Amino acid sequence: MNTKKTIFTGDNLPDHESGVRKMMAEAEGSSYVSFKSLAEAKSQPDGVVVMEGDDGGQIFVVCAASKVKCSEEILRQLLLDLDAKTWDSPDMAHIYYERRRVGEGVAGGKGGAVAGTEIWIHEEFRKLGLVDAIRDVIEGRRSKL
């Protein structure tokens, strides 16, 4: 009987799954659920959007998928704009659609995040005065920062 655990690498991890959070869930003995699209996440009452940079080294934004009123294209541009202000490594910036209960932590660097009823934005963007602009893009009131 083979009792070896699979180690997830870029070669065998689906694009829509966070390696960091999948590994953490497995280490804790819990499940990790990710969705392939914003539409799929929106169809679930606990679907969230996680925007991150540095391959999970910093969580930028976490919000309920139901809060997102902009297109996925605009959401992707927001991610790139936020990454340009912090890491400037677009190949390491990702959007994941996951299942998270309100109050549940979102593992990641620089303190991670918490899924809530409001849009969670990393403190670094607060210091840059971007909170209102980020919310406005996500909620469809503007198309870019």
Describe the structure.
The model has no long low-confidence stretch (mean pLDDT 92). This protein is of the alpha+beta class and 145 residues long. It has five helices and seven strands; from the N terminus they run H-E-H-E-E-H-E-E-E-E-H-H. Strand 2 and strand 3 (58-64) form a beta hairpin. Strands 1-4-2-3-7 form a five-stranded antiparallel sheet. Strands 5-6 form a two-stranded antiparallel sheet. The protein is globular.
Beta strand %: 15-25%
Outline, from the CA principal axes? globular
Q: Number of helical runs? A: 5
Report the sheet with the most strands, covering strand number, pairing sense and barrel closure.
Answer: 5 strands, antiparallel
Secondary-structure-based class equals: alpha+beta
What portion of residues is helical? 25-40%
* Low-pLDDT regions: none
Give the beta-strand count. 7
Task: Tell me the Rg in angstroms.
Answer: 15 Å
Mean pLDDT: 92
Output the strand order for the largest sheet.
1-4-2-3-7
Write the element-wise H/E pattern from the N-terminal end onward.
HEHEEHEEEEHH
Distance between the termini: 54 Å
